[in-house]
Specification:
two-stranded antiparallel ribbon; globular; mainly alpha; two-stranded antiparallel sheet
Length: 438
């Protein structure tokens, strides 16, 4: 195996475990902030108990997950030095802001919040969790802003040596592609946290364990989760149109669309045949829908893959199936969250709904990973779209060195992932009384 492939595998491992930890941190911090605000405004100790219970699960996830981002940034120097040399002036500044502003804000106030229940006043303590939530979500913005430059490079010029140098920081920060990507990822992370809370509540409600505690949490989070599922559908549409404008090859791969045409239908059932540069099955087509989804015009022209050299194609099968599965899961989440919404005021929601919510807990994680696979694999063979190919970006190091670090990362992250799942499951099952000890 060559250095490029091993480096991509190592980065994929890091991203995989990153998505086990980070999305729950982003969404759960915001839910905790709303719960503690409710406690401060009403003085009801019940919401303090809620905050402390879910807060312990949040702290476990944050503590174990923080290392994934650190090692990910190191890889830009160890495995992708040519990439870092090429866009370091732009990429480095964004990651520096993320670390020195957002991450330090989040990590500083999370300590004050966790240890400050008896040391800080109620309002100041509540402010700490809001700053944690704000810091975490701002951190996500700067990281996605850096990725947005890789997807749609703006605000740069090439110097005499061919390196990309920053010419307009404002253009990079307000990159429309990055903002669409950010909102879609953020809404998905918040919804994941909502489904996590609903799933834990459902587990206890099925077993009639502390039903008042978990039923009230269920009632609070169900509307939040349904609203977010609606916003995900809306942001997904905007994101798709952004892809159509800036990465038409990725769009064609996402839809297994081979031949350029106008008034292009969207097929509900498609099986791509990349080897023959066609689809083996196309059924139940809705006329003009793909044109409308891409450009808000049923008569718009949509470029097909055959208009581009095969060397510029991503892996069609991977991108197509990951996109279809992600979209299918999105429809499931919308229906399930609506079911939870209309059932939230019932004294005993149906066991069928509760069991569905329990089994649903891992699915938002899978959907997020599928979406990120579409975003990253769909950009290939470019690491910076239309500027630098992935094959030219890896470090000039022996493949054996990357292979050893790949094995080490995989082992360490697997242990951390198992530990995270074990601890969260253990304290979630034990319930709020255990969470308040000390």
């Amino acid at each position: 195996m060559d250095v490029v492939l091993l480096s991509r595998l190592q980065f994929a491992v890091t991203i995989f475990f990153h998505f086990i930890f980070v999305p729950l941190t982003l969404g759960l911090s915001l839910i905790l902030a709303f719960m503690e605000t409710r406690y401060v405004c009403t003085g009801d100790e019940f919401w303090k108990r809620q905050t402390k219970f879910w807060g312990k699960l949040f702290i476990i996830n944050f503590t174990l997950g923080v290392v994934t981002g650190i090692t990910q940034e190191f890889q830009f120097g160890t495995n992708w030095s040519r990439y870092s040399e090429y866009v370091g002036d732009i990429f480095g500044s964004l990651l520096a802001i993320e670390a020195t502003v957002a991450f330090f804000l989040e990590s500083t106030f999370i300590a004050a919040w966790f240890f400050g229940w008896k040391l800080l006043g109620k309002k100041l303590h509540c402010l700490c969790i809001w700053l944690v939530a704000i810091g975490g979500n701002i951190s996500a913005f700067w990281i996605i802003c850096a990725n947005g430059f890789m997807q749609h490079p703006v605000g740069y010029a090439l110097d005499d040596t061919g390196r990309a140098i920053l010419t307009n920081f404002t253009d990079v920060v307000f990159n429309s592609y990055a903002w669409n990507e950010f909102f879609h990822t953020l809404m998905a992370s918040w919804a994941l946290a909502g489904f996590f809370v609903l799933g834990v509540c459902a587990w206890h409600l099925v077993r009639k364990s502390q039903t008042d505690f978990f039923h009230r949490a269920f009632k609070m989070v169900a509307p939040w989760t349904f609203l977010l599922c609606l916003l995900i559908a809306f942001s997904g549409d905007l994101n798709g149109k952004s892809v159509a404008d800036h990465q038409p090859v990725k769009l064609a791969a996402m839809e297994a669309h081979w031949k350029t045409g106008t008034h292009v239908p969207f097929y509900l059932i498609v099986v791509p045949d990349a080897a023959n540069k066609d689809n083996a099955i196309e059924a139940i087509g809705i006329p003009g829908l793909l044109s409308w989804l891409s450009y808000a015009n049923t008569d718009a022209e949509v470029k097909g893959l055959l208009d581009y050299p095969p060397s510029d194609w991503p892996d069609v099968n991977t991108v197509f199936w990951c996109f279809r599965l992600m979209a299918g899961l999105g429809a499931v989440f919308l229906l399930l969250s609506f079911w939870a919404l209309i059932a939230r005021n019932k004294t005993e929601p149906s066991r069928c709904l509760l069991k569905c919510l329990i089994w649903n807990i891992p699915l938002p994680y899978i959907a997020l990973m599928l979406g990120w696979t579409v975003a990253e694999m769909g950009r290939q063979p470019w690491i910076v779209y239309n500027l630098l190919r992935t094959s030219d970006a890896a470090s000039p190091v022996p493949a054996s060195s990357v292979g050893l670090s790949l094995i080490a990362f995989t082992v360490v992250y697997t242990v951390l992932g198992i530990l995270d799942i074990y601890l969260i499951r253990r304290f979630a099952i034990q319930g709020p009384d255990t969470a308040q000890e000390g």
